[in-house]
Structures are given as structure tokens and as C-alpha cells.
Specification:
Blueprint: H1 13-39, H2 45-64, H3 68-88, H4 98-114, H5 118-142, H6 149-165, H7 174-201
Helix pairs in contact: 1-3, 1-6, 2-3, 2-4, 2-5, 3-7, 4-5, 5-7, 6-7
Length: about 200
């Protein structure tokens, strides 16, 4: 991808597609946040807060490793998650368990790793965000919400598009593609869990 971030004169079709994917996922999360605000829905403040911190770590370490355009994707998610936490603060719940504790330890580890190696910090952040997604996986399995398909599938598509548009998907370049891959894989799983009951009812 082009190293020029905002000079549209240098954009190719690949650049346009990547920018669309970068914006689409966070934009749908913003719309989802507005729905939470409109209907006064309750969400776990602890989980969203952890996601915001981990997304921020991804953004910082990806930027510092030189993957500046790739860093914008988690950067936008960080901003929208902060807005979401502010929105759900009134009606949300604070649920802190073993998973949140493990995630916090991993976040601390990622912060320490930032001083050692950005690649190590990104891997630690990847483990942390995977752990932080477990509660919503369990909740989606126990209480599927088919209506949320549009929100989850938008992040899923964005993640897959950005992952496959990354020219170098080697382990040495993990800072450029790990966040995208995790967004794609987790989004795919959560989308299937939430929509499977509705799809099964069609048969």
C-alpha cells in the first residue's frame, strides 16, 4: 500500500478499497453505539473499556512499527469504543471476572513489552483482545441477537479485506496484519453464532 496517507492523487483501486474497509467497521460500531444510546440498552462497561485500551495499544504499536495506515483501523475503533463507553456508562453494568483479570494482566504485559519490542507488544495485545472477546462469545451463544448481524459482519468484512490486502503476511510483519485477522476471525464467529438460530428457523 502507498506510504502516503492522505494524498488522494496517489491512490490506486487497492488504496480506495483499503480506506473503505478502514472506515466501514468503526462507522458501523458508531451506529451501534447510537442504537445503544437511543434504546438505553445495557452492556458490560468493563469489556468495552478493555477493548478500548487494547485497541489503543494496537494503534500505538502499529504506528511505531511503521504500519501507519494499518494503525488507523484500530485507532478509529479506539475512538468509537471510548464514545461507546461514555454512552453506556449510565445504563451499563460493571462485570469483572477471571477473564477481565487475565486481560488486564496481558494489557500490563503489552505495556511493558512496548518498551522492549513493538512486535512482542502486538502479539501480547492480540492474546489480550482474544481473551476480552470470550465474554461476548459466551453471551452471544446463550442469548443470540440476530438483529446485530449488520454490525458484526461489517467489522468482519473490513478485517478480511484489510488482511488480504496486506502484501506481506509473514510473521516478521505481524504488526501489519494481526489486528485485521483477529477482527475478521472473531467477527466471523460472532456473526455465525448470532445469526445461526434465525437461519435455522428458515429451514
Amino acid at each position: 500500500m502507498s506510504t502516503t496517507l492522505l494524498d488522494m492523487r496517489t491512490w490506486s483501486g487497492r488504496d480506495i478499497l483499503s480506506w473503505f474497509a478502514i472506515v466501514a467497521g468503526p462507522a458501523c460500531l458508531f451506529c451501534f453505539s447510537m442504537l445503544l444510546w437511543s434504546y438505553g440498552m445495557s452492556e458490560n462497561i468493563a469489556s468495552f473499556s478493555l477493548w478500548g485500551v487494547i485497541d489503543g495499544l494496537f494503534c500505538y504499536n502499529m504506528w511505531m512499527s511503521g504500519s501507519k495506515r494499518d494503525a488507523i483501523f484500530p485507532g478509529l475503533y479506539t475512538v468509537i469504543v471510548i464514545i461507546t463507553v461514555a454512552i453506556i456508562y449510565k445504563n451499563g453494568t460493571w462485570q469483572w471476572g477471571a477473564i477481565e483479570t487475565v486481560c488486564s494482566i496481558l494489557v500490563i504485559g503489552a505495556l511493558i513489552a512496548t518498551k522492549i519490542s513493538t512486535r512482542l507488544a502486538i502479539v501480547a495485545s492480540g492474546i489480550a483482545i482474544t481473551m476480552a472477546s470470550i465474554p461476548i462469545l459466551i453471551d452471544s451463544f446463550q442469548h443470540p441477537e440476530p438483529w446485530t448481524w449488520w454490525f458484526w459482519i461489517s467489522g468482519t468484512i473490513s478485517g478480511w479485506v484489510l488482511y488480504f490486502l496486506t502484501p506481506d503476511r509473514s510473521l516478521s510483519n505481524v504488526s501489519s496484519w494481526l489486528f485485521n485477522l483477529l477482527a475478521a476471525v472473531m467477527g466471523t464467529i460472532i456473526t455465525l453464532i448470532n445469526t445461526w438460530p434465525a437461519l435455522s428457523a428458515l429451514h
